[in-house]
Amino acid sequence: MGHWTVNQAGKSIVLIGMMGAGKSSVGRCLQRRTQFALLDTDEIVASKFGLSIPEIFSKYGEQVFREAETEALREMGPDKQTIVVTGGGIVLCEDNLDFLKRLGVVVWLDGKEETLFERAARSGNRPLLKRGYSREAFTRILRLAANRRMQPNFASGCAKARMAKCIICNAAKRNVAIRRRFCPVRGRS
């Protein structure tokens, strides 16, 4: 597993990446370490519809889900320090990239294609995989998403807990609000 970080506009740490990359797990780890609120775009959308993500896809289709996902991003403000966990397809909409950048430090969690596919398929609740998408389709989605990762500026691979620490340290280097909280100046109280 690896990650790349881009941007530093807002105060949040935003996790993006393909399904199966570990965004939810790393997000929970970051939340425990930072005590920031944890916002998950999939959970926000599911709550608005009162349905699971697979049920939303089945009943309303992917386009309605993607529109609700974009709306959830628009409702998030860049002034509050949060951990934002996104769905794997959020980068497929170019407008979302601007919203993500405004929220704060954007981190792309990555992994080997085989590992990502196996994790995503194993979970059994991925609408795109349930609808009969093949490994080839997964690869196409991965490549499209990778082309939209917003020009990452560093990479590192490590386990989840260590990755959370790496993300916090690197986010602090790029974001004054995070640096003030997690890297206080020595000699000051």
What is the molecular shape? globular
C-alpha-based Rg, rounded = 16 Å
Structural category: alpha/beta
Number of helices: 10
The CATH architecture comes to 3-Layer(aba) Sandwich
Span between N and C termini? 37 Å
Overall pLDDT score: 75
Fraction of residues in H or I helices: 40-55%
Unreliable segments of 5+ consecutive residues: 3-7, 151-158, 184-189
Number of folding domains?
1
Taking the sheet with the most strands, its summary is: 6 strands, mixed
Q: What is the name of the CATH superfamily? A: P-loop containing nucleotide triphosphate hydrolases
Strand content: 15-25%
User: What is the number of E strands?
Assistant: 6
What do you see in this structure?
With 189 residues, the protein is an alpha/beta fold. The protein has one domain (2-182): 3-Layer(aba) Sandwich (Rossmann fold), CATH 3.40.50. Helix content is 54%, strand content 15%. It has ten helices and six strands; from the N terminus they run E-E-H-E-H-H-H-E-H-E-H-H-H-E-H-H. Strands 3-4-2-5-1-6 form a six-stranded mixed beta sheet. The longest helix has 15 residues, at 160-174. The chain is globular, with a radius of gyration of 16 Å. The termini are far apart.
